[in-house]
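=== RUN LOG ===
request id: a7f3
mode: sequence -> structure
chains: 1
length: 329
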Amino acid sequence: MYAQEVKTPSSRLRSRSDMCEQECAFQDKLDAGTKIEPKDWMPDAYRKTLVRQISQHAHSEIVGQLPEGNWITRAPTLERKAILLAKVQDEAGHGLYLYCAAETLGVSRDDMTADLLSGRAKYSSIFNYPTLTWADVGAIGWLVDGAAIMNQVPLQRCSYGPYARAMVRVCKEESFHQRQGFDIMRVLANGTEAQRAMAQDALDRWWWPSLMMFGPPDDASVHSAQSMAWGIKQDSNDELRQKFVDQTVPQSDFLGLKIPDPDLIWNDDEQHYDFGAIDWHEFYDVIAGNGPCNAERLGARCNAWSEGAWYREGLKAHSDKQRLDRKAA
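=== RESULT ===
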């Protein structure tokens, strides 16, 4: 999941005594593992939380094409160009699946896009960092898509049916993206000294932002408890972050690269890796729009929307003509 700041109307987990009879029946369905479908009754807060989360997720997939897109023509081989082109195309498809899922909740794609372009809607902070070298494309696939998979696999069990079903295909494709990124890092790590240094530099710059992808720590994530009670989230932010660290450190060791964390150490009692403190000031600063590429990323989306107006108008005119032709017939 890429939604890092999903806010519900209340920061307090609602108890059954706070719920009306209809809300209690809804919670009983969730507790029984029944999927909620678009025509089912749902609390307004549940609907609003889903709209925010799914739309932010969709925005992140669309904006997420930008850091890698400018490397398609600069990839080192024709095969790498074709693979990266396929990956960027997949990300566009993920955004479309998710916009469709959000539309089942009664929100229009135009409204969601307007929220993104105006800055009212957020997307993942990770996509506001620059891709300086080819190794960054590998680090994004390995780390960023790896963190995304860690978040998104549980979403296949999300209580809202359209979101859960969309995630099945998304996760399969993201797993290809992670393997592609890891392979780039493997080749560089086993290459020349300059290539190995490039891989290590990319890991140094992308490691901490990747950990931030899971959102703020549990004690600062005041809305997670309600999302978990609704079955939208399956795991807390810190649980997912820990799983990611435990999975990724051995991969780094295999590559012969060093995680840029002097406090990283295996905890034999807990059977996981302890890691250093995350700079949450940086996280919130980027979320607020002050990251190295915030203006560039949002500007690119605004330009694309403006320059594509003629095409959207043409599609609408064609659709209107077909409707009139059917009516006349």
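=== NOTES ===
The beta strands are 265-267, 272-274.
The longest helix spans residues 161-189.
=== END ===
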